[in-house]
Design a protein that fits this description.
Elements lengths: L3 H5 L4 H7 L16 H15 L15 H9 L5 H13 L5 E8 L2 E8 L5 H22 L5 E5 L9 H5 L3 E2 L5 E6 L11 H10 L2 H5 L7 H10 L9 H7 L4 H10 L4 H19 L4 H7 L5 H12 L3 H12 L4
Parallel strand pairs: 3-4
Antiparallel strand pairs: 1-2, 2-5, 3-5
Helix pairs in contact: 4-5, 13-16, 14-15
């Protein structure tokens, strides 16, 4: 989806992917996954090739340097609320396709991205990407992750990792894309400075994607517990509940509140570990299968293809081909 803008402008997608270390064959499957580092590098490649910080997803380009200029202004704000309003006003001058609005109703703050033209796939991805970077930038400004109450999508439910990214329930079929949180977070002071913004911009966009992960969430506590047992038979929901001093019923309810399922967490943990081994080691496939909890390579092969859309050997080969084209 991130390539829709490049495709709209007629750029060579294969060349762009190769520069980001991603083999084009890997993206032929809708289930394929790339690493966060590859995603961040692809953003840099698209930004440079398109001369657009929104990667050709909106009708008017956001010129390179605009995000940095905005962040340099926002570190002068006193509170998160002031920074969000100033940031949205800044981008309202550059983006014609949608407008970001911050409102407070009672104890709840809500950010909505209101469309100014008919929605298409390119704009849909652009709005969602803008929301992700809004969340990352807001968390960076106050040096802590803002706990979200919920994230709104206009589309019907889809099988994405969105709930894991935001660690919040996803509400589908809503009038606008947006997110909500307790209004008192708007009063948090902006703690970043002119010095820290220079360091921040040097690491962007990767630090917007991965830095402010909520390691206190139940999902991540379970992932850490399961990771220690990855090479063995993974514990049951009841055993995990006992280890965390939580009843199975409460565990299911709290996971549901975070938009997760226990089997989903196990599958994603195995998938992510397998991808890490395939891309960062030369370990034989059978050894990788054993490391992620499979006794037979054939079972691992079927599971991995179900998770990603490609076989593990093909995934490793595609990654190796892609990295040969890295700048």
């Amino acid at each position: 989806m991130i390539l829709l803008g490049a495709r709209h402008r007629g750029l060579d997608e294969a060349a762009l992917l190769a520069r980001a270390g991603i083999a084009p064959a890997l993206l032929e499957s809708p289930l394929a996954r790339i690493s966060q580092q590859q995603y961040a590098l692809l953003i840099r490649v698209l930004r440079r090739a398109l001369r657009d910080e929104l990667w050709g997803l909106t009708s008017r380009p956001a010129r390179p340097g605009s995000f940095g200029q905005c962040m340099k202004q926002l570190v002068r704000c006193a509170t998160l609320g002031e920074a969000l309003r100033d940031g949205f006003a800044f981008y309202d001058l550059m983006v014609d396709d949608f407008v970001a609005r911050l409102s407070v109703r009672g104890d709840i703050a809500q950010i909505q991205f209101v469309l100014r033209r008919d929605l298409d796939a390119r704009l849909d991805y652009g709005v969602k990407a803008f929301m992700l970077f809004t969340f990352g930038a807001a968390s960076w400004l106050v040096a802590r992750r803002i706990p979200l109450l919920g994230v709104d999508y206009t589309a019907a439910q889809s099988g994405t990792d969105t709930s894991r990214v935001y660690q919040a329930p996803i509400r589908y079929g809503q009038p606008h894309v947006g997110m909500s949180f307790d209004a008192h977070w708007l009063d948090l002071p902006v703690v970043q400075t002119a010095q820290s913004v220079r360091e921040f911009l040097a690491g962007a966009p990767a630090n917007l994607i991965i830095k402010y992960r909520d390691t206190s969430s139940l999902t991540d506590r379970i992932r850490r517990l399961l990771r220690r047992r990855l090479g063995e038979e993974l514990p049951s929901l009841e055993e995990v509940g006992e280890a965390l001093a939580v009843t199975p019923q409460t565990l299911r309810r709290r996971l549901r509140d975070e938009g997760r399922g226990f089997q989903q967490i196990k599958d994603e943990l195995r998938r992510d570990a397998a991808i890490e081994f395939l891309t960062n080691t030369r370990m034989p496939l059978l050894d990788i299968a054993n490391q992620v909890g499979f006794s037979e390579a054939s079972t691992f092969h079927r599971a991995f293809k179900n998770w990603t859309g490609v076989a593990p050997g093909e995934y490793r080969h595609s990654h190796a081909e892609g990295t040969q084209g890295q700048p």
